Amino acid sequence: MVIQHNITAMNANRMFNLTNANQAKSTEKLSSGYKINRSADDAAGLSISEKMRRQVRGLTQASANASDGISCVQTAEGALNEVHDMLQRMGELAVKGANGTLTSVDREYITMEVRQLMSEIDRVQSTTTFNEQKLLDGSFTGKGLQVGAESGQHIAITIGNMCTNDLIASALSKGIFYQTNNDSPRCHVTDNPKPWEVNWPHGEIAYWIPGNGTTWAKYEYFNKNMIEPWGSPGHSHVLSAEDLTVFHSFSYDAITDENVKNKLTNKWNNRLPEVTGGSEEALAVDKVPDIRYFQALNAFAKSAIFDVSETRSNLGAIQNRLEHTINNLDNIVENTTAAESSIRDTDIATEMVKYANNNILAQAGQSMLAQANQGNQSALALLQ
To answer: Of 39, 183, 328, 336, which has the most beta carbons under 10 Å away?
Structure first.
């Protein structure tokens, strides 16, 4: 029996401290809800967990970005819906104005409404914005929606210029023919290979080219298939900017789509001056709006409706794509969060078992430490 070193008490004290340390960890895990509160708890698990957290937070924001993209697309598409309605009304007025029972005064009234509709299209184009960004003026191009947690994971959105000037330019670039009873010296039978001959005799099916100073499509872009179904009387006229200036001023220089711009000219086979494009910037208010102008308006309205429909279809496809993207992102976030939770979160049931076990061991250790310290007291009996 020795009294200098109480080995039994030392052992009981060491085990009691270990139990207390484990109990403290259990208490920390239960109170914080996290299985890993510091890297020492699980170094590898902490690294994996933080990587997953970065991905989850990035994907959550990407889902929000896609929702913003849907709002942006819906804003533009809603504005184009109104543009569609105005173009449909324009086509209706074109058919009305081409009726032979109307007087020139009647057509002037119709022309006034068409001008207002075109002006409203331009106003809608210039004022439709999302987050202080204009959507329909041609500046909203190549916009990337970040829809992933990694760089480069984006969906591009481009919305062209929906102003009347660009819609007219697009119609001109298609080389559209429309039937008219108007005669012209620049008229030619369709089966002849030399349409530039000014004095070529008229035929049952013929077309004529606009003169100098107006803009129309280059010859290679003419839609010649439109001529064939038409017979006598009537001529197939190439749609030109001059035909539409009674309704709206046109500027070649203001065209924003360079691809469209390159398809236009007012130079015909070296017979006209060396000029590319043309300019009809002043609204031709002094022209009598006869039937031919309304026939041209009909051709323009048909082309513009097609262009706006194409843009709206693209926007609708993007919106559907974004909705699928959001669903996919939310699914990934849910499953990644579940995986991260299994690494990082405390399993309360399991940890409570450990806590109860450590609590019992702590009480037992405290009791045994007291008993070990009492063992040295027996040495007093020998000394008495």
So the answer is: 336
Dihedral angle computed from the Cα positions of residues 289, 292, 296 and 299, in that order, rounded to the nearest 10 degrees: 130
- In this structure, the strands spanning 235-238 and 206-208 are parallel
* Residue pair 145/69 in contact by the 8 Å Cβ criterion: yes
Tens-place pLDDT, residues 155-171: 999 999 999 999 999 99
Backbone angles phi, psi at 287, to 5 degrees: -80, 140
Q: Report the C-alpha gap between 302 and 296 in whole angstroms.
A: 10
Ordered domains of the chain (ranges, CATH)? 54-330 (1.20.1330.10)
**What tokens appear for 340 in the block?**
């991260």
CA distance 261 to 311: 19
Per the confidence metrics, is the pTM higher than 0.85?
Answer: no
Residue positions counted in the chain: 384
Percent of the chain with pLDDT over 70: 83
Q: How far is CA 155 from the centre of its chain?
A: 7
* Enclosing H/E stretch for 187: strand 187-189
Report helix, strand or coil for 128: coil
Residue with the larger pLDDT of the pair 1 and 127: 127
Contact 72, 157 (CB under 8 A): yes
**141-152 tens-digit pLDDT:** 989 999 988 988
Rounded (5°) CA angle 118-179-234: 145
Closest C-alpha among 258, 175, 166, 165 to residue 216: 175
Burial of residue 225 (number of CB atoms within 10 Å: 0-12, 13-18, 19+) = exposed
Report how far apart the first and last C-alpha atoms of the chain are (Å, whole number): 15
For 14, the 3-state DSSP assignment is helix
Helices of type H across 33-103: 43-97
Q: Which two tokens stand for residue 305?
A: 């409706």
349: burial class by Cβ within 10 Å (0-12, 13-18, 19+)?
A: exposed
Q: Report the pLDDT value the prediction gives residue 231, as an integer from 0 to 100.
A: 47
